[in-house]
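Throughout our pipeline, every protein is held as a single compact record rather than as scattered files. Nothing more is needed to write down the fold, since each code stands for a local backbone conformation. The record that follows is passed on verbatim for readers who wish to inspect the format.
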Amino acid sequence: MNKLELYAYSYSNFPAMEASIDPNQVSGQGTLYSPILYIPLEMRLRHLRSNDESERAEYTLFRLEGHLGLPNKEELAPLFVETLSEQPDPYENPRAIALKVLLDFRRIDLMEKARSGDDMMLLLRISGLVFIQKPDKPIVEKLRSNKIGIEIKVPQSVWIKNVLNRWKVHELSLLEIDKPRIDNENLSEKPLEHLKAAENHYLNFNHRETFAALYSAFEALAKRYDCKNPDKNFFSKILNELPVDKRDKYRNLFHHFCDLLHLGRHEQKVSNGDKPQNNDVAEQTEVNRNDAQLALILGQTILSYISKIV
């Protein structure tokens, strides 16, 4: 466990509170549209002794506050803790407090970029407010720590299983695929905008729209090179520096991928494969999450490759 001691420095140099967190118990709560990070904190309230230990003061902890951030000290969101009324018991037994952090897609994206497929490293800053019943004059004191905060290292397996998959932001396994690096200078703004839209559609379970946005990214890139569509002619044009055998295979591969993306643009198909007749039954081709995930990974990879050769 990761521990932090907090002090009421105006009264004593002995710790008034000890806080600890088990990273394996961190979990995701809420919904896809209002994700909450749940951090169970275990605290012990110590008897508050004066520095010369000549007296003790009774006190009540009535507030915990703080922020969750990344190891680079970038703050993500404040903690949400219900109103408290806690006093130390004779045996200084531990007690559990639920810390909640309200997040959104932007903050989750920051966390995932920092995690980069590894363990999730977080920094929890906490402080408290106590009412101290001093013999001469009661005071309200802020509990502070001499450390920057509690560093929380959530194992990759716990983060994926208990956090990401509960939010259903990503359906990941322990074998993660890092997003390919795209050279933005070699791609115009429009393809990157459509790629970002495809990523957002995927996160929001809009599978068909993921396909359509990816096609729009390649279509926008084709128009930059004065081609109407991302067809074989377009790919031959941008791959012209490659050896002939490699160029032909990549051209066909990329063209067939863009042809697949038409599933997100055309709503209907005819069940018998022919031109629609009066008695034909039109069906919609299903595009599910697995399709969208594969298409997004391939689209990112292909655009990354193209950005490095054009």
